[in-house]
Amino acid sequence: RGHKRLILVYGEHPLYNADFIAATVRKVYSVKEGNGEIRRVNINAAPLDVDDYKKVKEAGIGTYQIFQETYHPETYKKMHPRGPKSDFLYRLYGLDRAMEAGIDDVGIGALFGLYDWKFEVMGLLYHTIHLEERFGVGPHTISFPRIEPAIGTPITEQPPYRVSDDDFKHLVAVIRLAVPYTGMILTAREPIEVRREVLKLGVSQIDAGSNIGVGAYSTEDKEAYKKSQFSLGDTRPLDVVIRELAEDGYIPSFCTACYRLGRTGEHFMEFAIPGFVKRFCQPNAILTFSEYLNDYASPETREAGLRRVQEEINSIDNPEIKKTLLKYRERLDNGERDLYF
User: Fold this and answer.
1) Gyration radius of the chain's alpha carbons
2) Which of 44, 45, 213, 275 qualifies as a FRET site for 7, CA 20 to 30 Å off?
3) For the chain, what percent of residues have pLDDT higher than 70?
């Protein structure tokens, strides 16, 4: 359907160890169909020890995400009274071990609604400060999902600290202002109207066409939706979301160039903090969006997208970049793929 990066989410099952994760990542990278391929596999999984992180890194992962769920120890203990997830500190320092193992890009997050949202924002920001001070690299991504209804989980119907839409917008703006270099991930948990509003406040990454039921991407499992972890607020297909973004003046990007060129970790920070990375982001967004328009877009989306691409090209003020970009676009139209700055 056009995606170039995936987030693979693993539970706490005993079989989901480092060897299993690494094997599934390699399998994803091995699958090619026409112009379809996944170029970056990100991981959301349980904390590992250093040696296991090294195994996962060798498989070529992108970002390793661990969501703390809540940074409030008493609430964490109440929500995770037993089992492998019950160790608050082991989870809290899980990404320290990941970076010790050589994983450059890590992602943090909290589940908003378990405790006071102001405290959770503070926790995310102090976690960011800790990573910056210890490793010189802050989180590559920050996620901020709100609790949504989930089957068999009564607390999701009445979250102890429900976050209003206005407070949600507030916390997104605070995180963006405090950590301007990070990727901010807004998921399809949120309703369409909320997504439209929050995009304006600094969100840089969204999903579309997601299906969170266990086995739900398999056409053979008709009951997979009943096994979903939670409900989605935005179930629109990728093509529809892409068209709306283009019509609203955004330039959808499927870029994975930094990952392949070594602009990760400290090197990414060197480009991102002063804003230099935009020299690569804009042309790479145009190229990857053009790939999507050529290979997957509906006629309506292609028309809207091509207009947006031309507007973006016209805004480039660096003649050398524009010249190279136009050559790359011509090569894309002639059938080449995966060209980047």
Assistant:
1) 20
2) 275
3) 94
CA distance 339 to 341: 7
Burial bucket for residue 292 (CB in 10 Å: 0-12, 13-18, 19+): buried
Tens digit of pLDDT for each residue in 51-80? 999 999 999 999 999 999 999 999 999 999
Q: Would you say the C-alpha torsion 203, 205, 209, 210 has a positive or negative sign?
A: negative
pTM: 0.91
CA distance 3 to 256: 11
Residues 105 and 199 occupy one common structural domain = yes
Tokens 């909290």 -> residue: 110
Q: Determine, yes or no, domain membership for 245.
A: no
CA distance 314 to 300: 22
Question: Average pLDDT, stretch 184-197?
Answer: 94
Find the helix or strand (DSSP H, E) in which 249 lies.
none
Q: How many CA atoms lie within 13 A of 156 on its CB side?
A: 14
Q: What are the residues facing 181 on neighbouring strands?
A: none
Closest to 168 measured CA to CA, from 231, 211, 110: 110
CA distances 125 to 161, 266, 279, 286, Å, are: 19, 19, 27, 32
Neighbouring-strand partners of residue 40: 5
Cβ burial, residue 332 (10 Å; 0-12/13-18/19+)? buried
Q: What is 174-201 written as a DSSP string?
A: HHHHH-TTSEEEE-TTS-HHHHHHHHTT
Residues 171 and 292 in one domain: no
Does 265 fall in a domain?
no
Question: Containing domain of residue 318, as a range?
Answer: 279-333
DSSP 8-state assignment for residue 106: E
From residue 38, alpha-carbon distances to 30, 42, 61 in Å are 9, 11, 11
